[in-house]
Design goal:
alpha/beta, 21% strand, secreted, virulence
Amino acid sequence: MNLQIIIATLFATVVTCGTATVDHGKIEPFPQPEPVTISENAAIKFKPQLFVSASVCASFLAVNAAGETTDGLKGSNRNDACKYALLGSQVYGRARWYKDLWPSCFWTGFASRRHDWKSIVVWIDNPALETPKIIAVSMSTSDTTYNHPMASDYIGTNTSFRVRYQLGLGSSNMTFTHLDGDYQPLIMWEQLTDAARVALNESFKFEDAEMPFNDEYFEKRLEKARPL
């Protein structure tokens, strides 16, 4: 049986329109819990190393333990006050069986608009193995589309990729890189507080960008990202 592990990271510029918002630089990250389940151990093993180009925003947080969400950048320019995340950054993950595959996801949001989510999707054969085999990798190119780089393009170890976020021709994108990046604390969906999950399930808070790993959109994104 094949399994898919989708891991996605969340970056800066996610914003909200609802109540209980906090300045984008004042959201505190969740500490990375000790993994307990097979899913949590696999997600940590495949968490990517992220390099963020100087021309784009640093990584910020989406939600805190109290369920308060970021109010986003202030908009005088798209990199306004976003070069440094003084309280740190965060990786958000989610995993479950899907059509005989196993998805665990890293999501990212950047400054190409008020909030813009990016995903890295790593498909493996079995998360319970000591060293699962990577079947494929998918990277989001928009809210609803993914590309699938060839195995010859993978850069990193047999578990952790090096990934760069950058500005391309007219749009932002993610690509493999030889540059050393950073590892952000990973928090899985089930490890979030109830208040944080409720806040992330309120999709209206993220304006025109779909919140990719909440209950409404998670399965739809799995189908979009599935390379097989």
